[in-house]
Amino acid sequence: MSSGFFKDIQKVTYKGPDSKDPLSFRFYDPDRMVMGKRMADHLRFAVAYWHSFAWPGSDPFGGQTFDRPWFRGDDMEHAKLKAEVAFELFTLLGVPFFTFHDRDIAPEGKTLAESNRNVREIADIFAKKIDETGVRLLWGTANLFSNRRFMAGAATNPDPDLFIYAAAQVKNVLEITHELGGENYVLWGGREGYETLLNTDMGRELDQLGRFLTMVVEHKNKIGFKGQILIEPKPKEPTKHQYDFDVASIYGMLQRYGLENEVKTNLEQNHAILAGHSFQHEIHLANALGLFGSLDINRGDDLLGWDTDQFAMNVPEMTLAFYEILKAGGFTSGGMNFDAKIRRQSIDPEDLLYAHVGSMDAIARGLEGAAKMLEEGDLKSFVDERYSGWDSGIGQEILKGEKSLDDLAKYVEEKNLDPQPKSGRQEYLESMVNRYS
Question: Top EC class per UniProt (predicted)?
Fold first, then answer.
């Protein structure tokens, strides 16, 4: 039975590049084969519960602009209505996955036990909806940042009682994610950082965070959850400095606590930009370090310095992102989660569909461009040639530890070595990439 929220809107289907229907796919054809795999299986789209159904349209200077029927009461009946509408959207879009925070799907109770019961009650509805629709859970996560109790962090809080409370909250959502067949579990440390070092002991807080992550991994193994544990990098906002700053800092932290083979990353374009990197950089580095897991797909505003979470519409950027993903073999348990908000002036139900459809098309174009780049191989050939000296001879001997500084100094003398720089041909390569975007 329909909630009536989307009125008479029909399921979005592929109609081809010439379609003028804004509620049709022009480039995203789920069954189209790309490099031997269905487009849908490459992209693994997921709708984010929080931005699409829990965000009221507020910003730092203005309140709610969205008039959603489930916003009219913070109780379980309205939470059930929201779940009904959510699965209607998932079905209209034909996405294979969704994602959620515990606080998105159910109201917080007077105690953690009551809050957890509320979450579990909605999760029972999810289980039925998953069976009915075939839309699966990409990942679940716990909101350890919105409530005032977490103003000084969760795992990194100076008060061990807050650490304990957060751990109990995560336990509940991790177990529910497992029961719902979720393919990953995400930890985003929105408050795991500091505002001032005058009241902060970073060494203590990092050790607390390392212990928290270890406990999550231990519990995952205890309950038999086969999904991937993910950390989401973000450098700042809301805190002045967050410990999960970027891929490089997360790798260092995981190595310190012996978790580099247990935890991977859930990367986001907007967070990469706030850290001073490109999206391509973070994906490339995560693959190089063995940390690539999943993506929150959105974009930031180049003129604003905070996390605007706009829908990804930049085809060249998506092409470069997918070039890195395909080069490394594609997603395993991860996917592309629409951690994106429609703008606060986009107030109609149709706007939720326009945003997702447009972004899915842009990403599909990026996938096809990236696949052509790899299949034609010109970019890869250039890079391979540029580093070819390290593939054999003395280059390999150096990397294998077979040469000392004395050996290399002698080599220069014997060969009368006088190496000259070679062009990196950046503009040539940028022009090459434009052929595929």
Answer: isomerase
Which one of 376, 402, 417 terminates a domain?
376
Instruction: With respect to residue 146, please indicate whether it lies within any of the assigned structural domains.
Output: yes
The answer for residues whose C-beta is within 8 angstroms of residue 163's C-beta and 6 or more apart is 154, 155, 157, 208, 212
User: Tens digits of per-residue pLDDT, 3-40?
Assistant: 889 998 999 999 999 999 999 999 999 999 999 999 99
Annotated binding site for Mg(2+): 232, 268, 271, 296, 307, 309, 339
Helix (H, G, I), strand (E, B) or coil at 216: helix
Q: What range does the domain containing 412 cover?
A: 392-434
User: Has this prediction a pTM greater than 0.90?
Assistant: yes
Specify whether 101 is catalytic.
yes
Known binding-site positions: 232, 268, 271, 296, 307, 309, 339
Q: How confident is the model over 207-251, as pLDDT tens digits?
A: 999 999 999 999 999 999 999 999 999 998 888 899 999 999 999
Instruction: Tell me which of 102, 104, 244, 361 is the catalytic residue.
Output: 104
**Closest Cα to residue 81, out of 114, 105, 63?**
105
